[in-house]
Specification:
heterodimer, A: alpha/beta, six-stranded mixed β-sheet, 14 strands, B: 259 residues, TIM Barrel, nine-stranded parallel β-sheet, 12 helices, 52% helix
């Protein structure tokens, strides 16, 4: 990319900014300063890199899925974020923000979670670093991701059930922000994606871009290795996708595809395709594409996948969309479930339902992708979804 | 409003209530009741489903109004009717997204047309306010700016530089809601603002009893009382019951402030 940080106003083009209550603004300024200081400090990087290597298990492998490649008639590689500690990319961000929390001298951490992966990753970082942890989670998500709720409790976190709205990720983010308005003096909010008011989208992208950097170093086209023609990632709030896309954005010869949730189908209005079928507005403190009605009320999203069930998206993705740097597409619940089974049976890897969306698009577009080197960001493992899929399959 | 109240040495009382409860017509009656009981003006909430600065009571009131089909134009209609019936100043409270969706200029033009005196947008910090303030100024509508106990001196200077209609001084670090104890922040925040400017200062957030209102208004030009008002309406099963509860509560607030 030709830029690194957003502009002075925290914007990526017209998107981003900080639309937050005045009570929070000083904490956002403090966070920006703390991050700038840490990101310029070799000691911070040394500590982070040590944890990435010895605790998280990075770099994660890029695996050549040969059986599925043969079946689809393309060359499929999986960036194995499912193998990172706790089973998803979310840990990349929570370890980074956990270290920042300590640098700022705060002792309490709050987080929201949809699929529970960010909640688990935050609870893990807090256990590791000795911080108190409270996770807000929608009522509906607590039900469909029960395994992760119990994992958070085992890790010593308190899980707060949020019954507002549809009881999903949007409501959990809102509840976390409301808590933060009251506790900001001693609490840091470890937001779980590249969303929220500036500087969060920038900070989370910086902590996640390790995914794309590792991929570029691994599939570098040298020594018998291919280089990616197409990189595909699921998009909920957009953090795993931003992490893998950012180092490749604008690079010639590589096309980037973000896959949103089409839920029951775009035409039903029950989906999570904010970029594909939303319009610009302000949600959770930043200007971005979102799902809203004619009066600016936020609409409820829908997806079988809790991590994609969100009516907004990170502002930098909105910028990428308008700049034509990434194509944003969508696949339905049913297509994602099919892909979930396909990867399990063909490669012995049970993917998260979020990641299954990425694979479902590759399956659908296999003819168009014939012969190409396609990398799927396998953002997480599917253990958390097994119970839900058992229910769907009956 | 503030010039007169200062002259008279009297704190301004601005109750907050969500527009359209229990229905658009009865809603205007409730505001009228409060005006008769001593309110000097009103903050009227445009219902929003995801209010980041509001606690459960005001959020529930917004959800109830939305469920009854109250839209942004309906809410502005209530505000216009309140302005007309009570002849007191009216401030519209909305979150930023409905304003953007309407179009910033269009929203303020509508507000002006309906006689709305000022607009309060709790998720619009000064850093993002310029286009909104410009539209407000062109349409002759006042903009309110916020100062919180967490606001740094540097930010406070910048807030005051925007020359707001008044400063909404946030009494509690937290979202709207009733508190048992009086805020410990009011004295210090008032002193910090006063040391810099003569702008009118109104305290809000967490001011829920007559004693708290009286104490806060002594440090500034007045108070906004929200959740305690909204809760009385939400707990009433008829409009008559709600009106009785508000008449009594607003009179108590009035006498405590006038002490
Ligand atoms: C495995 C996995 N992938 C993707 C997501 C979606 O989030 P994001 O778009 O921020 O990567 C989640 C969120 O919970 C997740 O758990």
């Amino acid at each position: 990319m030709t830029y690194s940080r957003p502009d002075e106003a925290g914007r990526f083009g017209q998107f981003g900014g900080a639309f937050a209550p005045e009570t929070l603004m000083p904490a956002l300024e403090e966070l920006e300063a703390a991050f700038e200081d840490a990101w310029g400090d070799p000691e911070f990087h040394a500590e982070l890199n040590d944890l990435r290597t010895r605790y998280v298990g990075r770099p994660t492998p890029t695996y050549h899925a040969k059986r599925l490649s043969d079946q689809l008639g393309l060359d499929l590689w999986l960036k194995r974020e499912d193998l990172a500690h706790t089973g998803a990319h979310k840990i990349n961000n929570t370890i980074g923000q956990g270290l920042l929390t300590k640098r700022m001298g705060k002792r309490r951490v709050i987080a929201e979670t949809g699929a529970g992966q960010h909640g688990v990753a935050t609870a893990t970082a807090c256990a590791l670093l000795g911080l108190d942890c409270v996770v807000f989670m929608g009522e509906k998500d607590i039900e469909r991701q029960a395994l992760n709720v119990y994992r958070m409790k085992l890790l010593g976190a308190e899980v707060v059930s949020v019954s507002d709205g549809a009881g999903t990720l949007k409501d959990a983010v809102s509840a976390a922000l409301r808590d933060w308005v009251a506790t900001v003096e001693d609490t840091h909010y470890i937001i779980g994606s590249v969303v929220g008011p500036h500087p969060f989208p920038w900070i989370v992208r910086e902590f996640q871009k390790v995914i794309g950097e590792e991929l570029a170093a691994d599939l570098d086209g040298a020594a018998g290795k291919p280089s990616p023609d197409v990189i595909v990632a699921p998009v909920g709030g957009g953090s795993n996708a931003m992490g893998v896309f950012y180092p490749f954005a604008g690079v010639e010869g590589v096309s980037l595809v973000g896959v949103e949730a089409a839920g029951f189908g775009i035409e039903t209005g029950k989906h999570g395709a904010s970029l594909g079928h939303g319009s610009p507005g302000v949600l959770h403190g930043s200007m971005t594409y979102m799902l809203q009605d004619e009066w600016g009320q936020v609409l409820e999203a829908h997806s079988i996948s809790a991590g994609l069930d969100y009516p907004g998206v990170g502002p930098e993705h909105s910028y990428f969309k308008d700049a034509g740097l990434v194509d944003y597409v969508s696949v339905s619940d049913d297509e994602a479930v099919e892909a979930f089974h396909l990867l399990s049976e063909t490669e012995g890897i049970i993917p998260a339902l979020e990641s299954s969306h990425g694979l479902a698009w590759i399956v659908r577009e296999q003819a168009q992708l014939a012969g190409k080197t396609v990398v799927l960001n396998l953002s997480g493992r599917g253990d958390k979804d097994v119970q839900q899929i058992a229910g769907v399959d009956g | 409003m503030f010039a007169e109240s200062r002259e008279a040495g009297r704190g301004v009382l601005l109750p907050f209530l969500t527009a359209g409860l229990p229905d658009p017509v009865a809603s205007v009656e409730l505001f009228k009741t409060m005006a008769d009981a001593g309110a000097d003006g009103f903050e009227i909430g445009i219902p929003y489903a995801d209010p980041l600065m509001d606690g459960p009571v005001i959020m529930a009131a917004g959800h109830r109004a939305i469920a009854q089909g109250i839209t942004l134009p309906d809410a502005l209609g209530v505000a216009a009717a309140v302005r007309e019936t009570t002849q007191t100043p009216v401030l519209a409270m909305t979150y930023v997204n409905p304003v953007l969706r309407s179009g910033v200029r269009e929203f303020f033009a509508q507000a002006a047309e309906r006689g709305i005196n000022g607009v309060i947008i709790p998720d619009l910090p000064i850093d993002e306010a310029a286009p909104f303030s410009a539209a407000a100024a062109e349409e002759g509508v006042g903009m309110v700016a916020f100062a919180a106990p967490t606001t740094t001196d540097e930010r406070l200077d910048a807030v005051l530089e925007t020359e707001p209609a008044f400063v909404y001084a946030i009494a509690e670090v937290g979202v709207t809601g009733e508190r048992d104890a009086a805020s410990e922040n009011i004295h210090a925040l008032a002193a910090r603002i006063r040391a810099r400017s003569d702008v009118p200062v109104v305290f809000g957030v967490g001011i829920s009893t007559p004693e708290q209102a009286a104490a806060a208004s002594r440090h500034g030009d007045g108070v906004i009382v929200g959740t305690a008002v909204v809760r009385r309406v939400m707990e009433s099963s008829t409009t008559v019951q709600a009106a009785d509860a508000l008449r009594m509560f607003v009179s108590e607030l009035r006498s405590a402030i006038d002490g």
